[in-house]
Specification:
With about 675 residues, the protein is an alpha/beta fold. It contains 33 helices and 10 strands. It has 5 domains: about 200 residues, no CATH class; about 150 residues, no CATH class; about 80 residues, no CATH class; about 130 residues; about 100 residues. A hairpin with a 3-residue loop joins strand 1 and strand 2. The N and C termini lie far apart (about 135 Å).
Length: about 675
Amino acid sequence: MGIIVQQALHGYSEGHRQFACSAQLTPNDARLVLVMSDASGSGVTTEGIPYLTGYPLLESGLYALARTWPAPEMPRPGCVWTHTLFIEFADLATLDSPSQLAVLFKAPSIETARLYGGALHFANAIASDWALTSSQMSVFERLATALYERPYDQVWARRASDAHVDEVVLRLWDLQWPRLRRSFRFCTLTTRDRSQEGALFDLQFCGESVSRLRFTQNTEGVEATSISAGPWLAQLVDYAGRLYASEFREVLRLLGTEVLGGREAMQAICELQATLARREPTAVVDAIALVTTPATLSGSKAAREMVATHALSRADVLKDSELQYVVDNLDLVEEGELVDHGWKLARHLLEVAPVTLVELVEDERPAVKAAMRAALKVLDAALLVDNLMPGAHWWPPLLSIRPDLAEMSEFWRRTQARASEVQQAGVELHAVNQLAAAVQGLHDEVSIESVARAFGADTVLICIQQLMSHAGDSTELRKWITEACRQPSAVAAFLAHAPMLNPRLVAYISTVLAPDVVPNDYGVDPWLTALTAVNQQAGQLPIELLVYGFQRAMSWRSRSVGPLLCLTFESLHGAASAGVLASSNWQHLRDSLPWGRPADAWDLALRLRRGLVKRCVDTPVAPEDYLALASTDGLFAMILDATWEHWGGKRYLKWVEEVTGDSADPKQRSRSRVVKAYVEKHSKWLK
């Protein structure tokens, strides 16, 4: 894609005048072009070299780039030819390298003077096709130093007759943003200051024959003799030495359109680029300083975006002040950069300012909010949890994004969260992993209560049983068991239907709940199911569960009195007979037994038999269960004696014999015959 370039030719013909012009200029601009196209000062033509002049035509909206040649063929000494190109300001801004316009210059002659009246077509190439030599680069460094470190002064330099400074100045012009480029005034050879009223020249060269360039304005000007040691110049020189510096031109376009003023911003722009290229920790601090008030670039949104993007890419190592700058300017960062580097910011904030992180995931800026939420989704769950501070209340928004945290015991340990808080964060409590994590992490009783109620006591007991099989017993687990036991119906369901029962869990439940608390409104007593299962697993019931089971059988709750007595009585009686029944166990049993005579108080076994018989007769216990109360004939005989002595026992024994006499079970028939013989024998005594 090309642009249209207008042109003009000026030279001598009975005075300096215009020979041809294709541009439409205002009268003032036409007069300025006439002046600028004439020799730049006395003695200039004696140097015998062409030179460049560049200046804006503000009224016409054009930039004039002119090349002037000595015209020794003219009859009058000091005459010149000047070919001027006129580029619209808008077109000048689109050129990657306006220095390429120089290819349009054509040295004129009398014969060709009338051929400059038409417009020219210029194709915008990608980049300059020439590089500065080492000597030219030295000149470039001196000019850039003076122009941009003394931005409010006029700059001048000495030009040797064999020096190729036009290329240097054009490269300086290339490396300017559009607004500076169209206002830049320069002349590569003069013997006097070419400034006009209100339009000072930025850069001018004088020949070797001139001791110094004299200025007509109230200024001495600045001679370009020194080279800056600042990093900004090294950055500019780096771009000047490249044939392709498109990234810098793009930076200039972005920043130059937003920066107020002229040359004074170049140093700041280059310093910003140099700073962003550094890798040491102080680079971000220095970059932020360049774009914050009252710095030159503080008004540039593009500059602040560059710094914010760069800082975000290193957010994982920033200190508090730099981190806050990133947070405050995240809306300036492109969405792609936010997605790519947001995790670094999220991770660092998690460690040093978690409240700020939570604020970002709820930010009013949609892109920021989305990026931070996306970042949290990819961070390691263990890392998130490890940075939760006990007692902190900023975790609910975090949990709403990462519900998987509720499956980690460390989350519950650090937050001591309540079920309502977790549910308000949008996390449903129903997964086994969640409950297992909560059971292992919570120790606050209020939190335990809330979570246990959310899951249900039977589910809690199942979970505890699984944990106890791996981790054993613990104080925290006992708190959960105690809480679950607040719902006896759920405990009943657990005891009745759990496929496997941990003896230690069953034992602890028995210490929390009194024997008559768990309901048994229908069907088999849950405690019978549980104790039978434990007995099968362990081979025998511990004495504490024997006592508890016997108490359960003696209570009003159980619908499985007979089987419970069969399961517990004989072992208890054996312990009592052997004198190994602990006093604590006897104290529990005593409250379940009927009153006995003081004289019999020492005989614990007797009291057990009498209590057993009373329960069997009063209930009454099914005959088949009565017959199975003892495995030995001796103990069974003692039970028969106690039954016969009990009020109503005789009638009960006769009923047992009548019901079981025809039993298909040989053991029952055998025992039934024993009962029958006992009744007949003792009945004769009564007669």
